[in-house]
Write a structure and sequence with these properties.
This protein has one domain: 2,3-Dihydroxybiphenyl 1,2-Dioxygenase, domain 1. The protein is about 20% helix and about 30% strand. The protein is built from four helices and ten strands. A hairpin with a 5-residue loop joins strand 9 and strand 10. Helix 1 packs antiparallel against helix 3.
Length: about 160
């Protein structure tokens, strides 16, 4: 007799980002240094590469998958960019920004004060997700701190 399987595994949320990464084994240390990620799991492949990994950033788990063109799993560096950002709420966006730059993130726009918190705005898209830097894969990272519970109402007005 088997026990019931939880529909949402412990530590996960309803939606869990899954990032496709070219050079996954090299990317994990970047996320550890840049974002304070903690590696939870890695699946080594017979050829010595990493096929899948899970990291925890803050209270969230992020799945990482190796680029696999045969499965149409392509990284932003292969695709020439990404249409996805994953905002992070943090205690100190300035400190995390500096930490990410020190770890090798590429600055696309400087930090700035905005009605939705200390963040920045992608030049041509006044939407709530704010891009701060790009990781070595070309994936935009958004970092923000939450200064007011009115943040969402202000963002909707923008």
């Amino acid at each position: 007799m088997s026990s019931a399987v939880k529909p949402i595994p412990d530590g996960h949320h309803t939606i869990t980002p899954h990032l496709v990464i070219r050079g996954l084994a090299e990317a994990i240390p970047f996320y550890e240094k840049a974002l304070g990620a903690v590696e939870i799991y890695r699946m080594p492949m017979p050829d010595g590469t990493v096929g899948h990994a899970e990291i925890r950033i803050g209270n969230s788990i992020v799945d990482l998958g190796a680029q696999a063109p045969d499965w149409e799993a392509l990284s932003p560096s292969t695709l020439g960019g990404s249409g996805v950002t994953i905002p992070m709420y943090v205690e100190d966006a300035d400190a995390l920004f500096a930490q990410a730059v020190e770890a090798g993130a590429t600055v696309k726009m400087p930090m700035m004060d905005a009605p939705w918190g200390r963040s920045l705005r992608q030049a041509d898209r006044p939407v709530r997700a704010r891009v701060v830097a790009r990781d070595p894969q070309g994936r935009p990272d958004a970092r923000r701190d939450h200064e007011s519970d009115d943040d969402l109402d202000v963002s909707r007005e923008c």
